[in-house]
Design a protein that fits this description.
This protein is an all-alpha fold. It has one domain: Farnesyl Diphosphate Synthase (Orthogonal Bundle). It is built from 16 helices and two strands. Strand 1 and strand 2 form a beta hairpin. The radius of gyration is 19 Å and the shape is globular. The relative contact order is 0.12.
Length: 302
C-alpha cells in the first residue's frame, strides 16, 4: 500500500481534526497569555476574557492546515496560529468599542468594554497586539533568522494601515455611502482578508510554488469569508452569530448583500470558493485540510 493511501486511512475526519486543533490552540493561548493573578490583574483578566473560550478559531485552523501542506514544524505553526488569533482578538475588542462599531455582544457574551470599561478595553487591544509580536519574535523560534523576520513582516503588514487597520478606517468612512463592488472588495481585502491571508502564509513555509498557491487560496477564501459574514448578518439570528444580528444594516453600512442582493451575494461567495479550490489543484490530497476549511467556511450560512 502506498504512503498516500496509508495517510488517507490514518488521517482523522475534518471535524475531529478541527476540534483537536481548536482545543490545542486554546491550550497554547492559555499558556501564552499572562496569568490573571499577576499585576496588573484587571488588564490580564480582561486579556484572557477577550482571547480565550470563544470563536471557531478559523484563522488558527487555516494556519495549521497550511503548515500540514508545507510540513512546517509544530512549534512554528503554534507561534503563527497563536499570533494571528491574538491580533484577531485585539481587533474585535477595539471594533466593539463605542468609537468604532459600538457593539455590546461578542462571541455570545458581553464585549470587553461592557464587561470591564472603555479604558481597559483599549489597553487590552494594545496588549494583545504586542503579545502577538512577542510570540513571533521569541529567541530561537526559527533556525533561520530570515524566516522569522519574514513571519514578523507578514503579520505586521496584515495588521497595519495597508491591512486590517486600514480596512477598518475605510469601513468607518464608508458608513452611509454608496460603494461599488470593487470598492467594497478593496475594503474587505484589507479589513478581513489580510489577516486570513497572513494566517495561511504564517503556516506555509514550503516551496515558492506552495506559498504562491496558498496565497491565492487565502485571498479568495478571505473574501468569501466576508461575503458569508454579510449574508449571515441578514439571515442568522443573534444567538447563532454570537454578536448582534442585523448590525450592519442598522448602521447603514455597505455590504455585499446591499450592493449585489442576497442571491447574487451567494453566487459571488460560491465563485470565490471555486477560485480558492482551483488554486490548490497542484497539490492533490496534500491540501485536503485547506479544501475542507474552505467548505466549512461556506457552510456557515448555506
Amino acid at each position: 500500500m502506498s504512503n498516500q493511501a496509508l495517510s488517507n486511512i490514518s488521517a482523522p475526519d475534518f471535524l475531529t481534526w478541527a476540534k483537536t486543533k481548536q482545543i490545542h490552540i486554546e491550550q497554547v493561548l492559555e499558556q501564552t497569555l499572562p496569568p490573571a493573578d499577576i499585576a496588573p490583574q484587571t488588564l490580564h483578566s480582561a486579556m484572557r476574557y477577550s482571547a480565550l473560550g470563544g470563536g471557531k478559531r478559523i484563522r488558527a485552523l487555516l494556519c495549521y492546515a497550511a503548515a500540514e501542506l508545507c510540513h512546517t514544524e509544530n512549534h512554528i505553526a503554534d507561534a503563527g496560529a497563536s499570533a494571528v488569533e491574538l491580533i484577531h482578538a485585539y481587533s474585535l475588542v477595539h471594533d466593539d468599542m463605542p468609537c468604532m462599531d459600538d457593539d455590546d455582544l461578542r462571541r455570545g457574551k458581553p464585549s470587553c468594554h461592557k464587561q470591564y470599561d472603555d479604558a481597559t478595553a483599549l489597553l487590552v487591544g494594545d496588549a494583545l497586539q504586542s503579545l502577538a509580536f512577542e510570540v513571533l519574535s521569541a529567541p530561537r523560534l526559527c533556525k533561520n533568522a530570515s524566516q522569522q523576520i519574514s513571519m514578523l513582516n507578514i503579520l505586521a503588514k496584515a495588521a497595519g494601515s495597508t491591512g486590517m487597520a486600514g480596512g477598518q478606517a475605510i469601513d468607518l468612512n464608508a458608513v452611509g455611502k454608496a460603494l461599488t463592488q470593487h470598492e467594497l472588495e478593496t475594503m474587505h481585502k484589507l479589513k478581513t482578508g489580510a489577516l486570513i491571508q497572513a494566517a495561511v502564509l504564517l503556516g506555509a513555509h514550503g516551496s515558492n510554488e506552495q506559498i504562491s498557491a496558498a496565497s491565492a487560496y487565502a485571498k479568495n477564501i478571505g473574501l468569501a469569508f466576508q461575503v458569508i459574514d454579510d449574508i449571515l448578518d441578514v439571515e442568522a439570528d443573534t444567538q447563532t452569530l454570537g454578536k448582534t444580528a442585523g448590525k450592519d444594516a442598522g448602521s447603514n453600512k455597505p455590504t455585499y448583500v446591499t450592493i449585489l442582493g442576497l442571491a447574487h451575494a451567494k453566487d459571488h461567495a460560491n465563485q470565490l470558493y471555486e477560485a480558492a479550490i482551483t488554486a490548490l489543484a497542484p497539490f492533490g490530497d496534500e491540501a485536503r485540510r485547506l479544501r475542507e476549511l474552505a467548505s466549512f467556511i461556506m457552510r456557515r450560512s448555506f
